[in-house]
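Hey,
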Amino acid sequence: MRVSISSTEAVRNFSELLNNIKYRGDCYTVIRGGKPAACLVPVEASRSGATLADLREIVRQLPHLDNGDQSFAADVMAAAKTQPTMPEALPWE
């Protein structure tokens, strides 16, 4: 469950928020100045270590489709072929 809270509320209840995150898996969006400033999520839920370059390996490790899903697989492969390729290096590097 994701809940929006003010930064003031986060400061006042930080210990309770950490317990809710750790033991219940709650997620919080911290609002500051009327705009989202941060998200507090369980460590396991965070995928900050994964990059777009890791996507191919992540997809490769997914379970394979059975024979009844071949039309779905064909649709996915057709859609994948129409996607632009990734640049070798980022233009700002």
